[in-house]
Design a protein that fits this description.
Largest sheet: none
Number of helices: 6
Number of domains: 1
Strand content: under 5%
Radius of gyration: 26 Å
Structural class: mainly alpha
Shape: elongated
Order of helices and strands: HHHHHH
């Protein structure tokens, strides 16, 4: 599935979730705000996971590394202002969730990179009979 289709589906899912929770908690504004904040924190961390994975595979302080850190920020701003309509005091929390997502993504990249290492030598190469040194027979 192309990346643009995934992004469109993700934004659609966010919009549906936001409107569904808004309808459920319409009478209780504080409960709706708590649910919106929780969803926003989860989505902000989830957006940063692939960027953290990519950042871990790039050279430190390169342009690709810098872009992997800063490209999700406009998307998080759109999430906060347009989709969730959250107040400005949530910005430090969104920053913390973005850092958390970057850290989780880098750990996942390390885990995946470790799994791609070459396997142990084949067991047929370690035949004990072929590795033993034979003593030459001495005539008496």
């Amino acid at each position: 599935m192309p990346l643009t289709t995934r992004i469109i589906l993700f934004i659609g899912a966010l919009t549906v979730a936001n409107s569904a929770f808004g309808a459920i908690f319409e009478a209780d504004f504080e409960a709706a705000l708590v649910v919106k904040i929780f969803l926003f924190i989860c989505f902000a961390a989830a957006v940063n996971i692939p960027f953290g994975s990519y950042r871990n595979l790039t050279r430190k302080f390169s342009i690709a590394w810098w872009l992997a850190i800063h490209l999700p920020i406009p998307f998080i701003i759109v999430l906060r202002t347009i989709l969730f309509d959250l107040p400005l005091w949530i910005i430090p929390t969104s920053l913390a969730s973005a850092v958390f997502g970057q850290m989780v993504g880098s750990q996942l990249a390390l885990f995946g990179h470790r799994r791609e290492e070459p396997d142990a030598p084949d067991q047929t190469d370690l035949d004990p009979e072929s590795t033993q040194e034979t003593q030459p027979e001495v005539a008496v």
